[in-house]
Amino acid sequence: MARKFLVHARRDQVGVAVADILKGEEVEGTFMDDGSKVTVKSQDEVPLGHKIALMEIGKGQKVIEYGEEIGVATAGIPKGSHVHVHNIKSMRWGSS
Amino acid sequence: MTKILGYERENGHIGVRNHVLIIPLDDLSNSAATGVESLIKGTRAIPHPYGRLQFGPDLELMFKTLAGFGRNPNVAGAVVIGIEQNWTQEIADRIAKTGKHVEALSIEGSGDLKTIEKASRIAKSMVQDATEKPRREYDLSSLLISTKCGESDTTSGLASNPTIGALYDRLVAEGNTLLLGETSELTGAEAHIANQMATPALKLKFQKMFDDYTKEITRQGADLLGSQPTQGNIKGGLSTIEEKALGNIQKAGKSKFVDVLDYAEEPTKKGLNYMNTSSAAAECVTLFAAAGAVVHLFTTGQGNIIGNPIIPVIKLSANPKTVATMSEHIDLDVSGLLRFEYDLKEAADRLYKLVVKTASGRLTANEVLRHFEFVPTKLYISA
Questions:
Q1: Do B155 and A94 touch (CB under 8 A)?
Q2: Long-range contacts: B316-320, Cβ < 8 Å, 24+?
Q3: Which residue of A has its CA nearest to B344?
Q4: DSSP one-letter string for B12-80
Q5: For B61-84, how does the pLDDT look when each residue is reduced to its tens digit (9 = 90+)?
Q6: Please, are residues B300 and B315 in contact by the beta-carbon 8 Å criterion?
Q7: In which band, very low, low, confident or very high, does the pLDDT at B225 lie, cut at 50, 70 and 90?
Q8: Measured distance CA(B317)–CA(B323) in Å, rounded
Q9: Does B223 touch chain A (CB under 8 A)?
Q10: Chain A: nearest CA to B159, how far in angstroms?
Q11: pLDDT band, residue B204 (cuts 50/70/90)
């Protein structure tokens, strides 16, 4: 299986594509903190550098990357889907 | 102890380039300064649009920036040209404190052409004197080094910024003085930087600086969400300022910050220093160079092409597409990190070797491509 994404920290809900991921592709990721593996079936095209959901994230739920909150989900995000400005937003600068 | 081949200045500071700098005090003096540059080999002019009717802290920062460029150890000598005498002499006096050769010329009463001739004769001698100076061996640890990221994407946070972090940890251990800035791009990760401060007093100083910045944004009634993350960041996969900031701070490494500096303030403590700067690439690198940085390390994801007139800007990227499509701008390709070809330590070792080579005279992409952006930070309107 193609090694196509990295995950910064154990508790992260998203991985970052290190190569373009095709829709429907079964891809493997590596946790950067302990080297362990995780696999996920992609629901969308996820270009290099973009994020893929490793689990379902409910609307209004905080999104975790680097082991930290990077924003809040503005829509329900199914496992394996592309995570970006269309479904998450910042919690800073009057964006509430 | 790793050695580089550099230049020792009169005040004992070590530079890695040997420029003769032609500094226009103000917008009106750009023509004369670039006139000298075009006549005299080995000179570099730094034209800019300011220097008239500035006042208070904004004027002081302009003085610090212009004088800082003349004071920088990469500069052998400087000619300052201004429309009027007083402020021109002020810049020259600040540069002269380093002990290096500096001359001040004012245009009023003589005009551009006579000024260009006089300045060119001075610059010609300065260049000849500068070329007499050989490169000699000095410790790498004597260099002041700065870092910044630009047109970042998620590959910055995954690979190129952690490469800087690993290098910074090594350089701190070896005794270098290092700079990190970009206040706006800490938003969402500022607590991490606050917790990396060496003392509670520094933590308070840092927190106040960050809060003042946030208040200024609020006072302007602005919402930075339209400019942070940038369109380039978003294209590269960065979704929020928090995510960008968490990637940005990977450059800091794990060392404690030994000081918190104001814009263009020269550091006095060895180790990792935080400087208040804008996150706009050219403004930030200009402030670091004005504070005396002699080598800059710049990471990019989507492909920022910035340079600086007096300090080599070493550019690294981990984005394989950028490295392929913009290869002439990239000094070090670390995209192998994303393909699991080598680890961070190896990437940091490669960067370390490139710093040594660059400091010893190898030209960077920005120097060969003539990317010499000089952008003073302006704090507010002129009178």
A1: no
A2: B316/B160, B316/B163, B316/B164, B316/B351, B317/B155, B317/B160, B318/B155, B318/B156, B318/B158, B318/B159, B318/B160, B318/B163, B319/A48, B319/A49, B319/B153, B319/B155, B319/B236, B320/A48
A3: A32
A4: S-EES--EEEEEESSGGGHHHHHHHHHHSTTEEE---S--SS--HHHHHHHHHHHHHHHHSTTEEEEEE
A5: 999 999 999 999 999 999 999 999
A6: yes
A7: low
A8: 7
A9: yes
A10: 10
A11: very high
What type of residue sits at position B39?
Answer: L
Quick: pLDDT tens for B232-253.
899 999 999 999 999 999 999 9
Tens digits of per-residue pLDDT, A63-75? Answer: 999 999 999 999 9
Give the strand order in the sheet containing A68-73: A62-65, A68-73, A88-89
Chain B segment 171-210 residues within 8 A of A by beta carbon are 187-189
Of B224, B243, B338, which is closest to A18 when you measure between CB atoms?
Answer: B338
Best residue of A5, A7, A18, A28 to probe chain B, by most B CBs closer than 10 Å: A18
Largest CA distance in chain A: 43
How far is C-alpha B102 from the geometric centre of its chain's CA atoms?
22
Q: Quote the Cα angle for B319-B362-B175, to 5°.
A: 80
**Paired tokens of B318:** 């981990």
Residue B156 near chain A (CB below 8 Å): no
Closest CA to B81 of B96, B72, B91, B94: B91
The separation between CA B210 and the C-alpha centre of its own chain, rounded to angstroms, equals 20
B188 contacts B242 by C-beta, under 8 angstroms: yes
How confident is the model over B188-198, as pLDDT tens digits? 899 999 999 99
Closest to B239 (Cβ–Cβ): which among A6, A71, A93?
A71
Type of residue numbered B164: I
Q: Do B237 and A88 touch (CB under 8 A)?
A: no
Q: Are B302 and B151 in contact (CB under 8 A)?
A: yes
CB neighbourhood size of A60 (10 A): 10
Among B181, B192, B150, B171, residue whose Cα is nearest residue B299: B150
Domains of chain A from N-terminus onward: 3-89 (2.30.130.110)
A1 interface with B at CB cutoff 8 Å: no
| CB < 8 Å to A17, chain B | 237
Inter-chain touch B236–A65, beta carbons under 8 Å? no
Q: How confident is the model at residue A96 (pLDDT cuts 50, 70, 90)?
A: very low
